UniProtKB/TrEMBL annotation:
Domain 4Fe-4S ferredoxin-type intervals: 33-62, 63-92
Protein name in the entry: Ferredoxin
NCBIfam families assigned to the protein according to its UniProt record, in alphabetical order: PorD_KorD (TIGR02179)
PROSITE patterns: 4FE4S_FER_1, 4FE4S_FER_2
Function (record text): Ferredoxins are iron-sulfur proteins that transfer electrons in a wide variety of metabolic reactions.
Organism this protein belongs to: candidate division MSBL1 archaeon SCGC-AAA259D14
Quaternary structure and interacting proteins, as annotated: Heterotetramer of one alpha, one beta, one delta and one gamma chain.
InterPro entries: 3Fe4S_ferredoxin, 4Fe4S_Fe-S-bd, 4Fe4S_Fe_S_CS, PorD_KorD
SUPFAM superfamilies: 4Fe-4S ferredoxins (SSF54862)
Length: 94
């Protein structure tokens, strides 16, 4: 269970929100394009995991990265940063 960083938060002008809000904000519905990893091309460098602003990329087992679409907002940073172009942005079917 992830602790809710908004609990007991009194929002004032200039309030600083505690870290970890990315774990309670599911941003998946924001997406128009979703990243898809081509595991044949992926060299398991971990760059996508490091650059994702929403911690949506996870190493699910050794040298295998997957994207948690509940948290991915489709910003495309991972696809831009992948050194071997293993991530393709695919239009969401809605
Ligand atoms: S598209 Fe953006 S939010 Fe989604 S996995 Fe890539 S870097 Fe993370
Ligand atoms: S950045 Fe590209 S090559 Fe590196 S782990 Fe992610 S998908 Fe694989």
């Amino acid at each position: 269970m992830v602790e809710d960083p908004y609990e007991n938060l009194k929002v004032t002008i200039g309030a600083v929100v505690m870290p970890r809000t990315t774990l309670v904000n599911k941003t998946g519905s924001w997406r128009e394009f979703k990243p898809v990893i081509d595991h044949d091309k992926c060299i398991a460098c971990g760059t996508c995991e490091k650059f994702c602003p929403d911690m949506a990329v996870k190493e699910v087992e050794e040298e295998r990265f997957e994207i948690d679409l509940d948290y991915c907002k489709g910003c495309e940073i991972c696809a831009e940063e992948c050194p071997v172009d293993a991530i393709e942005m695919v239009k969401e079917a809605k």
